[in-house]
Amino acid sequence: MTTKSAGGPLLSQDEIGLLISSAGTAPSMHNTQPWRFEINGPVVDVILDEARGLPAADRSGRLILIGLGAATFNLRVAAASLGYETTFATEPDPDRPDIVTRVFLGSRRSPTPSLAALYGELRRRHTYRGPMMDLDVPLRVRDRMAAAARSEGGDLRWLDAAGRRQLGGILRVADDLDLHDEDRLTERQQWVGGERDVEGVPADALGPLPIGPATVRDLSAGFERPGRGVAAFEQQPLIGILTTPGDRPSEWLRAGMALQHALLAATSYDLAVSFLNQAVEYIHLRSRVQELVGQGARPQVILRVGYPARASAGTPRRSWDRTVIQGRPLEAPRAR
Ligand SMILES: Cc1cc2nc3c(=O)[nH]c(=O)nc-3n(C[C@H](O)[C@H](O)[C@H](O)COP(=O)(O)O)c2cc1C
């Protein structure tokens, strides 16, 4: 079966399955997978599923849009792997603010090989919360990650030793707040820990507890996780802060695309990445991170990057066919 459209490619059910299941491998805060997709001919709309928001930790909706930007980037990668060129628009329809991005599949004449090359990394990438090996990440590889972020409108800046120390102080305050904020604790418990089949972060994916001081976020901080192992973490973590020039929703979506492009580039070098986002989830602490990156750049995501010292478990996903609607009538879509 194929979808019909005037003037665009006809997508088969297999192609739709590949596109939507690929989009769904994107990272999202607490693995809420806050997306739905609507397909009409050659147009795929990425839709915000508000019921999957995190009102305690993400009141402004910034982090949820970063996840949706990442899912949009995956769609573009998967379309390129099928040979389609793509264009996209953010916030394409003023009457449908829930449609956050719209991806247009074009001809099969000139797909983007650099995007298609990332297809194999989509299902290899996952968030790693364990210790890294004491091995430097070569400058060339850090540059590749930064270039990937830049190509989507983001800026990935690596911290020097002084920056790491300053961030360490901010993280300690954030960790303490995380432990005592009842609303966030309750919200994290809804999504994190235990066994999870389709969404959320299962206990297995949380990684070991650090022995001694470590730069890592413990998502289960504040509630018990029985049987958890311990490990020594690296003492000189490589930390990058992903920024955008502004702080509007369209830039949050761009941040998600930049994040995902950089993560897939990292995966292609067998690097592992975890998030230190507690420092940008509290407004007053985000301002302190802002001082680290300077004016004219808004911190969106903080990453710890390295070669993983052990294997780790991934997170589950909803079945793709539960996230997609096909054949909705759509009037004259246009890229902006
Ligand atoms: C905007 C954003 C913020 C995130 N913040 C954190 C975080 O602070 N700590 C953490 O351990 N994981 C964080 N994650 C990672 C998610 O938990 C992870 O993407 C999700 O559980 C899906 O798992 P996967 O990345 O292994 O596919 C974040 C992801 C996104 C997109």
Question: Your description of this structure?
Answer:
This is Nitroreductase. Residues 313-336 are annotated as: Disordered. GO terms for molecular function: oxidoreductase activity. It comes from Kribbella qitaiheensis. The protein is of the alpha+beta class and 336 residues long. It folds into two domains: 13-125 and 316-326, NADH Oxidase (3-Layer(aba) Sandwich), CATH 3.40.109; 139-306, NADH Oxidase. 32% of the residues lie in helices and 16% in strands. It has eight helices and eleven strands. The protein has helices spanning 13-23, 62-81, 113-116, 139-150, 161-180, 182-191, 249-268, 283-293; strands at 35-40, 43-48, 86-90, 99-105, 155-158, 209-210, 230-231, 238-244, 272-275, 298-306, 324-326. The strands form three sheets. A five-stranded mixed sheet has the order 3-4-2-1-11, covered by helices on one side. A four-stranded antiparallel sheet has the order 5-8-10-9, with helices on both faces. Strands 6-7 form a two-stranded parallel ribbon. Helix 2 (62-81) packs across helix 7 (249-268), helix 4 (139-150) runs antiparallel to helix 7 and helix 5 packs antiparallel against helix 8 (283-293). It is globular. It starts with 12 loop residues before the first helix and ends in a 10-residue tail after the last strand. Flavin mononucleotide is lined by residues 27-31, 63, 66-67, 70, 126-127, 129, 201, 217, 219, 274-275, 277-278, 301, 314-315.
